Amino acid sequence: MEIAGRVAVVTGASSGIGATVATDLARRGATVAAVARRKDRLDEIIEQCSRYAAASMAVPADISTRAECERIVREVEDRFGRVDILVNNAGISIHRNAARTTADDVERLMAVNFFGPMYLTTAALPGMLERGQGAVINVTSVAGYVPNPGEAAYGAAKAALSLWTHGLAVDLHDTGVQATVVSPGPIDTEIWSLDEELSYDGKLYPPQVVADAVADAVEKGWVHRTVPRRYGLVGVLYPALGRPMRWGLRRFAAAADKKLGGTTSDASPT
Asked: What is the per-residue pLDDT across 15-62, written as a single tens digit (0 to 9) for each?
């Protein structure tokens, strides 16, 4: 599906991946509805989007409730008549050892990282199906198939979203509406500046690589894209090499737990 001339909703658009995806889609010719809780940051992003698509709009909202998600879609459809592209990017990450993670922590993660995207999709889908065209892009994480230290609940939420999206793609076959999973590896987002002791020794990739993957998925109809692509091997190797990989993760976790314990962020590493 061509991006130019489309109406795109992007969640988590106030910073990081979401902000980059929003401005990138606008640059490619889409009118963007940028969604996030932080209105001041949204206004900055919309100013950038408006340089390419003057009608772009900010939609301050909390996607953790169904009522808010339905309101988002309703406002965009009232303004533009349709939602062509939905990019579910918003997410939170709670860095805490699984033994110290509470039921409230898990419920909050699932509300934002799984139920929010599901609510938005089910609200936007009827219009897409009626027109016989649309794209739902769900940004998950490689943590959805390989566990990160202190992120058991986060990984579970991302895994749920990934599998749900794959099921959606099967059910939407031949409808003209596509569903895509984009799974980033380590991306340079705000999480790395939350704690001066928090560090990552590997390479951090710029959010633009995710924006490029999102655009490519919309245009070519991919069902799953891992960013960078070689990180897709991790999901293949983990079932076969789980024991040595878990050993390495446990060593990393011993140090990481001291740095990450109790950290909560709206910006996840991926």
From this structure: 999 999 999 999 999 999 999 999 999 999 999 999 999 999 999 999
Give catalytic status of residue 154 as yes or no. Answer: yes
The active-site residue out of 154, 200, 205, 238 is 154
Architecture of the domain made up of 7-265: 3-Layer(aba) Sandwich (3.40)
Q: What is the DSSP string of 195-241?
A: -TT---SSPPBPTHHHHHHHHHHHHH--SEEEESGGGHHHHHHHHHS
Q: What is the largest CA-CA distance in the chain?
A: 53
Contact at 8 Å (CB) between 131 and 82? yes
pLDDT digits (tens, 9 = 90+) for 65-79: 999 999 999 999 999
Neighbours of 258 (CB within 10 A): 9
